[in-house]
Specification:
This protein is mostly helical. It has 9 helices and no strands.
Length: 234
């Protein structure tokens, strides 16, 4: 089943796509895109904002849902039907966060072929994953799932349901789970921005130093989170 395959490889399958996008962006960022440098800078700002929004959606989702009810394994499984908190606002809050991050990075790349490759992969992979998940949830929970799916939209959040975001928040769980995605898109965005400045001879010594410090900070954050996770399990 394609959905199960995409779900199993969801953590590392985008890496080749990201690599191709980064490689081709390095070749094409020598000259401004359509609209000139001003439009490119605007897209960079919009892209970073969208990535931040997507990361915030994911962080809030992981923090509010009960521990152990959102799978981090490579196998499709379901031990509980989440219908409250973020899942009362939209059925796929984590994937909605992924969508904002993907679109944000593509805005920073601001190349038509990048949109075709990156957004095309996102649509195909998530379409198969969601179909497989919905089939599993309907088979496991039956009528309660159908009632919830009929009430809550899949992608367009219900603003009126935001008041359901209350109760205990799992700060530790959210921080430990969301550091890796943050480091992934953060380093990708930083590399794109640094290369664009370098290719257009706009990369000053101060700007380059700042970029390297940001990259180093992400690496330190990644290592610290891994140590924290091992310490917590011990």
């Amino acid at each position: 089943m394609a959905g199960a395959v995409f779900f199993r490889i969801r953590s590392f399958a985008p890496l080749p796509v990201i690599f191709v996008v980064l490689t081709q962006a390095w070749r094409s960022h020598v000259h401004p895109g359509p609209g000139g440098a001003a439009v490119d800078h605007l897209l960079n700002t919009v892209g970073l904002s969208l990535c931040g929004l997507g990361a915030l959606i994911r962080f809030v989702t992981v923090g509010f849902i009960p521990a152990g009810t959102s799978s981090t394994s490579r196998q499709l499984s379901s031990h509980a039907l989440n219908t409250e908190g973020p899942y009362a606002v939209v059925r796929h809050p984590l994937y909605l966060g992924n969508l904002f991050i993907t679109v944000g990075l593509l805005c920073i790349a601001h190349e038509p072929w990048a949109w075709t490759l990156g957004f095309g992969y996102f649509l195909v992979s998530h379409a198969f994953i969601i179909r497989a998940e919905e089939r599993l949830l309907r088979r496991t929970f039956g009528a309660p799932y159908d009632e919830w799916a009929a009430r809550v939209p899949g992608w367009l959040p219900r603003v009126s349901a935001l008041r359901s975001l209350q109760g205990p928040f799992g700060w530790k769980r959210a921080l430990q789970r969301e550091v890796n995605p943050l480091v992934g898109w953060g380093m990708g965005a930083t590399l794109l921005l640094m290369w664009e400045s370098f290719a257009r001879t706009e990369l000053t010594s101060a700007l380059g130093t700042t970029g390297l410090r940001v990259l180093a900070g992400f690496l330190v954050l990644l290592i610290a989170n891994k140590v924290w996770k091992k310490w917590s399990r011990a």
